[in-house]
Amino acid sequence: MADMKTRTPSGLVHPVGGAIAAGASINARGLTKVFGSGENAFHALGPIDLDIKPGEFVSIIGPSGCGKSTTMLLVTGLEPSSAGTVEIDGKLLTAPISEIGIVFQDHLLLDFRTAIKNVMLQQEMRGLDKAALRERADALFERLGLAGAENRYPWQLSGGMRQRVSIARALVHDPSMLLMDEPFGALDAITRTQIRHDLEMLWLETRKTVLFITHSIEEAVGLSDRVLVMSKSPGTIVEEIVIDLPRPRPAHLGEYPEFSKYAERIYRIFEKLGVYKF
Amino acid sequence: MKPNPIMQRFLEPVLWFAGLLLIWEVLVRALDVPIYVLPAPSQFLSRIVEDYQRLGYHAFVTTRLIVYGFVAGAIPGVVLGYLIAKFRLAEQVLYPLVVFIQGLPKITLAPLMLVWFGFADFPKILLTALITFFPILVDSVTGFKSIDPRQYYLSRSVGASWWQTFRFFELPSAAPSIFSGFKITVVIAVTVVIVVEWMNSQNGLGYLVLRGMDDSDTSLIFAVLVVGSMIGVVLSWGMEVAERTLLPWRRR
Questions:
Q1: Considering the entire predicted model, what is its pTM?
Q2: Smallest CA–CA separation between B250 and chain A, in Å?
Q3: Would residue A267 count as lying in a domain?
């Protein structure tokens, strides 16, 4: 851990306000989502229970359309749930919370704003201190290998760079929770491995609570403290796998024999659920 | 030498067009067509040069009406398009009405407008606005409905206000569709104004066309046709420039 400190840029150790923001805890009970009503009702998700500790990196993995993305939206109140409760840091969620950072598969950056201005959107919308946020944004750009790209527009950046800008935007206001919905799904394998590592390093420094939605076993095992495996629609959590691998994890996860064991366990569950038919 | 893309884009059509005019010119002269039936291009083009002051004045009058009418139709078109796309109630109440009115041949309302509002600019602007309003409304609804729902999650997650959501997320997403409506409609507006000017006007290109008809002065009518289409070209080119300036990422 000693060399971690030397790698930490000052902008991220003492975020806005001076205190290091700890991650939030998430506790959900009986979370359910039904779209529509009557005969057309579609039971998309749940009921599921979730318990995520502050600063924990948790992945939800499951087949397409199982409701993993919906879970993320329900937990933050961005989408209202049909039943169940969510507590963030012990407080019952009644309205959408905005003390979060969110990254989607598509970057969803504003085309008419430069990279840095996309990140500073957080400052503008939340009315935060401009100089302090700019300092944090610069530190994040440096950290994410985006230095020099500040004044470029999204269409002038590669897919990987755009996702890096999205990550910077999700973290610049120092939220307690980072939500990622298949953030690397549209990237090529080489870019994905690098950005996975960069995200892990960033998380080790900041210890946000991360809810990471993915359909990649490699990503889930490579990043998480815990992997929750979800069934086909209506999604429920069928298994919880604690990933006990040292950090930071290597580019080639096969270095750990345990990795194959974890991966195999997930494949087995998918086979049992009928996700795979071989 | 590599072919210049600008040359290809502009020179080629210009050459084709010039060739066509040349054939026209040769045919009219060879067959000795009387000028009141079909003037040769040289005749109505030189008419534009000779009569530039008169044509310029009437073109200005018409252009002013086009711009006023277009703006008066476009603003409510976009606003109502937003409301219909955004609120179910607005969609249920307004959209059937919109579809019905869109089917009406609205130009037939022109005499009614003149009866109601007199012969000044107002009824002309109103009718132009009415006709430009609907296509813009339809394109705005399409634009505002095309927004990726995750944009809303994102805007909520950054704590954006209503205005910020509109300004940063909704309007830019809808803008390409709105602009395509603008570009088509502004050309339609040229026709509408000229037609409305047929009805009891003292000036404008439509008035000039009627004078040309009364005097069997076909070269004047053709001159107006050229000037009118130039107005259309310039206005739609202006829209193109506005779109490129406002939405530079669309240039790719």
A1: 0.79
A2: 9
A3: yes
